[in-house]
Design goal:
Length: 296
């Protein structure tokens, strides 16, 4: 069941294609080319990270459009050439070329993600300000920062938040507490500890579509204490008319679909006696085993 866009929350994963989801999410016999369509039958948003590394062919963009219903929402990263190599400067043509290729999907993009590198600090805020002044205003943006100066509640963070509020850009919230609470005893957790930012969680909504990236603990129930804060914050945002995006990761993402649905159900239970409501979602049922024939 796909969550309609008039509902107050978008729920998704870090990707739509994973070989380990063949049984849990796609069902037996699902072709690789059909994975996005099967994914979109359960979740109504996804993190599109591939665009960070390379701009897809326009034929691929059209296929993504055709594989998803009208109420599905992608969140695509701007290319690394814009955010990391040029650090938002001298990239007008790069942005225009990228958006032109992505144009067939524009109506299905919930947020365009501006993920900035860890060395993009307070001194670079003028570049962010100029970039936000120039980008197309009819699109919705999310900005993810990783420099520690933006997490100490000092002048740099206040300036950043004020800039995002002024331009109605959403501050993307990275909640990596769960994964960093896990001991580095597996390759997946070690890799996550090396690659994911270990920064404080500042649950601020600078615009109407706050995005949370919840990087889960590999042990399912160990995630609950970290998600409790979101069981309070998300209903408040929804009641205020905001439309949050909630993305669930795990170190290897093998059981991310199951974790996402379980946490979503906890949120459903929390708002059960309020004016808010969320539709039920579930993974496809496992096919019944064929009856065994016994020869006597």
């Amino acid at each position: 069941m796909t969550i309609p866009t008039n509902r107050p929350l978008f729920l998704g994963l870090a990707m739509w294609s994973h070989n380990q989801w063949q049984k849990s999410l796609y069902g037996s016999g699902c072709k690789n080319s059909d994975r996005l369509a099967r994914y979109a039958e359960v979740f109504n948003t996804v993190e599109g990270n591939t665009t960070f590394y390379a701009t897809p062919a326009i034929t691929t963009v059209k296929k993504w459009h055709d594989a998803t219903p009208s109420d599905f929402r992608f969140t695509f990263k701007l290319p690394s050439t814009i955010t990391h190599q040029n650090q938002l400067m001298h990239c007008d043509q790069l942005l225009a070329d990228f958006l032109n290729v992505m144009a067939p999907l524009e109506s299905k993009v919930g947020l365009w993600k501006i993920q900035l590198p860890a060395n993009f600090g307070p001194d670079a805020l003028p570049a962010l300000k100029k970039f936000l002044q120039k980008i197309p205003k009819h699109l919705t943006y999310g900005v993810e920062v990783r420099h520690y100066a933006f997490f100490n509640k000092g002048d740099a963070e206040k300036t950043l938040n004020g800039l995002l509020i002024e331009h109605q850009a959403n501050r993307i919230i990275m909640d990596s507490r769960p994964v960093f609470a896990a001991p580095p005893t597996s390759e997946a957790v070690i890799d996550a500890h090396q690659k994911k930012p270990h920064v404080p969680v500042h649950a601020i909504a600078t615009a109407m579509q706050p995005m949370i990236r919840f990087i889960g603990h590999p042990e399912d129930l160990s995630n609950d204490p970290f998600f409790d804060n979101w069981l309070t914050r998300l209903p408040k945002w929804m009641a205020d008319g905001k439309q949050p995006y909630l993305f669930i990761h795990t170190p290897d993402n093998v059981l991310a679909p199951e974790l996402a649905i379980r946490l979503y159900q906890k949120l459903q239970q929390r708002i059960a006696n309020s004016a808010l409501s969320l539709p039920d979602i579930a993974l496809p049922p496992e096919p019944e085993a064929s009856p065994q024939i016994t020869l006597l």
